Amino acid sequence: MLTDYTNMTAERVAQVVDDAIAAGEKLIGNVIATDGDRTYDNTMAPLDQAITGAQDAYGVGGFMAQVHSEETVRKAGADAEQKNDKWLAGLAFRSDLFQIIKAYGESDDAAALDGERRRNLEFWLRDFRRAGQELSQGERDAIEDLKKRLIELNVTYESNLAEWQDGIEMTPEDLDGLPEAFIERLAPGQTEGTYLVTVDYPDYVPFMNESTNRELRRQLQFKFLNRGGEANIALLNEAVRVRWDMAGKLGYSSFADYAMEIKMADLKAVADFYASIEPGLTELGVAELTVLQELMEKDHPGEEIMPWDWMFYDTLQRKLDFGVDDNEVSEYFPLEAAVAGMFDICGEMFGIDFAQVEDPTAWHPDVSVYEITDRASGKLLAHYYADLHPRPGKFSHAACWRLKAGVAQADGYRQPIAVVAANFTKPSGDTPSLLKHDEVNTLFHEFGHVLHNALTEAQLPRFSGTQTERDFVEAPSQIMENWIWEPEVLQRFARHYETGQPIPTELVTKMVAARDQNVGLKMLRQVFYGHYDMALHGGDAPSDASEAYFDLVGITLVPAHPDTHLGASFGHMMSDGYVAGYYGYLWSKVYGDDMFSVFEDEGVLNPEVGMRYRSAILARGGTADGMELLRDFLGREPSSQAFLKKIGLGS
Ligand SMILES: [Zn+2]
After folding, report:
1. How far apart are CA 166 and CA 174, in angstroms?
2. H/E stretch holding 196
3. Which of 186, 433, 537, 633 is the most buried if burial means most Cβ atoms within 10 Å?
4. Ligand 1 mean position to 407 CA, how many Å?
5. pLDDT (tens digit per residue) in 250-301
6. What's the CA angle centered on 440, arms 634 and 59, to 5 degrees?
């Protein structure tokens, strides 16, 4: 039964979360009051049920903060999320609960546990230790206060960003170089005959890529890099101090040391990882920058490439060197066909079918909902919500959320629900929504998270779908990005929106050749973000969020944009899941590429490999360590060879 989201109100959003917390409290109260022998069923199972309830409440209430059209409902959603998160985070701090689970952990029943149930108990005990249950009451209270403060800081930071509005009014001449389709959908400026170019991604990215006006590129980027303003820099700096404070109280040498205890990698593994790829990337990047500098020489003799130049010359170089024009390519990727193609390919490889739900009662008419069924058994596996176009106040990037986890329940397996919110241009007039190739990439990437959630067979909410180690969770989405570069795959669905002609082989060949253009510079940006994260959270003491940007930006080989504040809009540095974990993107990419190499060896659309991948990786969620899942699927130790080979390093 799907939730009816058509009449969401601020009151209902608040009520859903209050009810879930009340129900959870009742379950926990019963656990504590239980007399006699403790068993999994009378001690742990009610906790699983309480957590499922709170997670479900997020899917109805808190999630509205990301997508609802009314500001009051978004605000109520943000409040509800905060309340929900605080309650869930608070469980590990309850000493009554700790005493009971500790006692259960010493019982014969616990000693006989295996599989997910054993892992769940171990994870609870680890949570309690990390929450400082072995410390004094006063120290524990202090840690809980710090955690609550972090949640508040995060919510305020995110809402500052979501509500941030800025842009530049431009005359038609100011828009030189931009395609007609871009200009047509711009909002009018306040002055007659002008257009408003905002700092939102659908405006900002094309403008930086294609505007020939260097000064306006500089001005727009200045505004873009100051989203969130001084207020958010202060919030980030406070969050970083709070994190270190907390880690210190728990006996860790840095916040990263604490955060990475529950990840695949540790500080040393990450340092080794960067050390192994950075010299090669820098060498590559220096050579790439020389080419961009030569291109700019024609327009601006004697001037150095600045941060507001490199996207433009990267785009220009792509047109010149490879004859690949992003807009020409996008004519082969009307959104609907790209989605249908993705369903077709995933259906074939992973043995699933998709059917659109009529009248889905979602939160906005733009949202499409699909049933995902198992091809072999015909059984319903999951639902997928696709909310793909921008709206005022909506989440401004692309991401996947789980609205319901797949879990075992008394009356059978409860099917998961996942959603993708993205910001692909809406169709206008006769022009359908045409995706840039990197938007097709985003579509496939986020759908990797959907599949991870949808095809889970985990029994417990703690291990369902994307509930894996944070530095593993991107591997099943990173792997998806590989398929859209395979001519064999593209030719199945990439057709010109007017002529219906399949994408020419020649163009695909050029796209593949252009793929790694400036990959050194692009990867170095990722390495820079990873080092920035570690400057804030690793080492001996935290750096200031603005100073760290200027200290480290040299890694990118492009100078800093003066007087900007990367940290004010770098949401990853505020999100618990990614803090001391930004390296995880490259790290997961390495393992995504490694897993894809199995498909390359045995056929990129080989359903037999697809089904093996489904059962070894997707079905298992977080029921085992990421390293173990990888070894099981690969049949060998994981390696970075496929990744290095792809970017032209190593053999
Ligand atoms: Zn992702």
Report:
1. 17
2. strand 195-198
3. 537
4. 22
5. 999 999 999 999 998 888 888 888 888 888 899 999 999 999 999 999 999 9
6. 80
For residues 558 and 319, the answer to whether their CB atoms sit within 8 Å is no
Q: How far is the CA of 61 from the centre of ligand 1 (A)?
A: 23
Identify the pLDDT of residue 513.
Answer: 78
Taking the centre of ligand 1 as the mean of its atom positions, its distance from the CA of residue 446, in whole angstroms, is 6
> In sequence order, what are the beta bridge partners of 372?
354, 382
Q: How far is the CA of 421 from the centre of ligand 1 (A)?
A: 12
Please count the CA atoms within 13 angstroms of the CA of 438 that sit on its side-chain side. 14
Give the up-direction half-sphere exposure of residue 579: CA atoms within 13 A in the CB hemisphere: 25
Considering the candidates 116, 446, 469, 486, report the single residue annotated as catalytic. Answer: 446
Kindly list the distances between the CA atom of residue 552 and the CA atoms of 88, 281, 328, 560, in Å, as whole numbers in the listed order. Answer: 36, 16, 37, 9
Q: Residue 322's pLDDT band (boundaries 50, 70, 90)?
A: low
CA of 428 to the centre of ligand 1 (A): 28
CATH 1.10.1370.40 fits 335-502+585-646, yes or no: yes
| Contact by Cβ (8 Å): 258, 581 | no
Cα gap 231→645, rounded to integer Å: 43
Most trustworthy range by pLDDT among 140-149, 260-269, 345-354? 345-354
For 10-134, the fitting CATH number among 1.10.540.10, 1.20.1050.40, 3.65.10.10, 1.10.10.10 is: 1.20.1050.40
Q: How confident is the model at residue 147 (pLDDT cuts 50, 70, 90)?
A: confident
- Domains of the chain, by residue range, sit at 10-134, 335-502+585-646
Is residue 446 annotated as part of the catalytic site, yes or no?
A: yes
540 Cβ contact partners less than 8 Å away, ≥ 6 residues apart: 254
The pTM (predicted TM-score) of the whole model is 0.82
Which residue in 51, 47, 63 sits closest to 3, CA to CA?
A: 63
What are the beta bridge partners of residue 428? 431
Alpha-helical runs (H) found in 538-576: 545-552
Distance of CA 483 from the midpoint of ligand 1 (Å): 16
Where does residue 247 rank: exposed (0-12), middle (13-18), buried (19+ CB within 10 A)?
Answer: buried
User: What is the per-residue DSSP string for 461-494?
Assistant: GGGSTT-S-TTTTTHHHHTHHHHTT-HHHHHHH-
Q: Cα separation of 469 and 581, whole Å?
A: 10
